[in-house]
Amino acid sequence: MQEKQYLMIPGPTPVPPSVVAAMSRPMIGHRSEDFAALHRRIQEKIRQVFQTSQEVFILTNSGTGGLETAVANVISPGDRVLALITGNFGERFASIARAYGAEVDEVNFGWGNPVDLAVVKEKLARNPGYKAVLATQNETSTGVLNDIAGIGALVAETPALLLVDGVSGVGGIEIKMDEWQVDILVTASQKAMMLPPGLAMVGVSPKAWAVIEENRSPRFYFSLPAAKKALAKWNTAYTPNVALFFGLDAALDMMLAEGLENVYRRHLLLAKATRAAVRALGLSLLAADHCASPTVTAVHSPEGIAADDLRKVLKEEFGITFAGGQGILKGKIFRIAHMGYAGKMDVLIAISGLEMALARLGYPVELGKGVRAAQEVFLGRDL
Fold it and tell me: Which residue range or ranges hold the Aminotransferase class V domain (predicted)?
């Protein structure tokens, strides 16, 4: 059964059949009235996910392209930036700012730890000249969820803008862009939004626009003023991926039909079951419960078993793909995604495969113990 595969990585994630069908519709002109109507529908729906009254720009590029868009429109050479780092993608955000000439003040909280609000408060008090603060909502590389509401409250008391990487969180984890005072929020299509890679979505606050309009850094494809001008006519500045727009429209319909609160509860439940299963198998979780991501779980490989060897057995024997570690955690952890088009049976399959792969590699696993722990959570009998 070579074609029977289970994709359990934090992007790209499985795409629902209804979204695939939507993307298969006949092509339309991207300057047509049909596309304008599609774009208008998407705008109404995506604002609900972002929880904002502001415009959300749908850009044809990757999540990293969305992050670069945020930086390119705000940062000029010499600007001071505070980067709050809890893993690989926090480091990437800082690297983008540095590429645009920013003087980046990095605060690394350690891979597996969340942002410490007390440290942020002290940094902002001692350094009033920051142009922007960079934060990651959901650090994919470590399975850590950061307190964006708390960070937003601190940054809002300063002239600095809060730029948030929500790439692996938005759509699976609640975020309130306006209420939490996020100035630029970025996400992408291939994670909790249940689409193939290729779209970035960028929300922009009025506070951010005041800075963007004064920014003189070079930008062309990544220009938010150009995107704003085009959106006024329900268009895009440059050629969009029309098929992905069709898919996004369908994916948003699925999310809103389920109900956003139910979407967020589903992700929390899947994470809880996964973590319970991992503990039942005697394995160690990277992130503590108080900062655990609802969309991806990072697990230390047991002593004597290389994480990548475990992943190889899972893939080759059972058709299950887990993600590996990144950066300083490469080869040391594996990551189980439960985001987007994911449900209870996906978690049970993943844990069942993990048990068998561990057994193959000589780990003293009691088959069924992890699966049972997850089942108990799903049945509400874990209390």
Answer: 6-326
What lies within 8 Å, CB to CB, of 102 at 6+ separation is 71, 75, 77, 78, 79, 80, 81, 131, 132
- Per-residue pLDDT tens for 272-291? 999 999 999 999 999 999 99
Torsion of CA 282, 287, 290, 291, to 10 degrees: -150
Architecture per CATH, domain 17-257, reads as 3-Layer(aba) Sandwich (3.40)
Q: What is the largest CA-CA distance in the chain?
A: 62
C-alpha closest to that of 124 among 85, 157, 89 = 157
Model's pTM, two decimal places? 0.97
> What pLDDT band is residue 3 in, cutting at 50, 70 and 90?
confident
| CA atoms of 161 and 37, how far apart (whole Å) | 32
Cα gap 189→164, rounded to integer Å: 16
- Whether residue 335 is annotated as binding a ligand: the answer is yes
If one counts every other C-beta atom within 10 angstroms of the C-beta of residue 11, the result is 22
C-alpha distances (whole Å) from 188 to each of 148, 149, 170, 315, 330 are: 18, 20, 8, 26, 24
